[in-house]
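Cross-check.
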Amino acid sequence: MSVPAAPSAPPGQPKKAATAAWIGSALEYYDFFIYGSAAALIFPEVFFDESDPATATLLSLATFGVAYAARPIGALFLGHFGDRVGRKKIMVFTLMLMGISTFLIGCLPTRAQVGTLAPVLLVLCRVLQGISAAGEQASANSMTLEHAPPNRRGFFTSFTLSGTQGGQLLATLVFIPIAALPEEHLMSWGWRVPFWLSVAVAVVGYVIRRKLDETPAFEQQTATEGVVKLPLAVLLREHWADVLRVIAGALIASVSTIFTVWALSYATSDSVGMSRSSMLWVGALANVVALAAIPLWATLSDRIGRRPVYLVGAVGSAITMFLYLWAISTGSYPLTLLLGIVTFGVVYSAANGVWPSFYGEMFSTRVRLSGMAIGTQIGFAVAGFAVTFAARIAGPDGDDWSSVALFTAALCIPPVIAALSARETHKVPTEHLGVRTPREAAQPETVTA
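Predicted model, tokenized:
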């Protein structure tokens, strides 16, 4: 099947798309990550205060994972419409939904005020956050990849993940002064402030993203072949193996969730005794380093390929997470800070900065958003509950860090297998990405837009 060359993006559009992806992802994942900090530090007492401390922490961390369970459902819905109506509309919708649901969390009554209704409402808001996040990265990655010059797709798509790290950094910086408040103020009103600030997320994100053009690749697909009637059917028929690769690869996100949530909870527990503020600074400084490392790793992947860079991140994360958790167990803050920066800021950034292009290049334009959304969100669902599993594995006292480290290393094995079995695509022209030859399958049924 002859594939026409992809039209060039208008001058300035690749940078504009990357900027919109960066800022939008930063604002959206600010919302997502403030929940993680609150789940580790605040919510066990505010929403689960009638339980014993260990059970309260376990229940609170489970609510963090609830959003990841909702993400595959959101991916099915948002991926379908993203491949039918375009990337831009989904990017605006996901940002607004995240801002509203996060603001509502800041308004929730506590368990002391309304009993078991409080954690139920918390879970409902968390589900909305998960649905929003399901479409955010896939739509932003598709947008930047399809706007980017063919030889710089890795660099431009990395801005989405750079934005995610920026959002995590912003969330951490906001929580540092909040965590330093007197206990009475922190538990009564202080924890609500970061969630209320999400109003700005919705406003700023809408202004930025509504001015962005749709991608040339999607417009060409719509004008020539038409959009696919049922993207999911085409995806599972033509790209099922790549969907499985993306699911396996997305398990690498377990490194992030265990680093940012379980390790924070462990370090500030009675068994270790580090302060909340000092551990939040570990995350903040690691994210500062990641902001620089992610585009550098992505640029390297444009030169030598996606697979080798991704493998460095996956294998290296399994090793350095063990060292990081060991450092926490020693109670040495300088050692914890150093290894936290190396683990999350440098090594994990190799996989984190490359997967947007690596996964996106596995699919053709007509099913790219669906493929990325469904594949990543199923894998991320497991990664989200990795925190809950880690809390169980850590034992009744929550201090068996070595078992958690081995568990994290085991979750890095599927991403390694996925990368080794995947095609190298960094030199494939954009219009040929995910395209099969006539011998491989017949032309799918499409419907004009």
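Residues 53-85 form the longest helix (33 residues). The first strand starts at residue 227 and ends at 228. Passed to J.P. for a second look.
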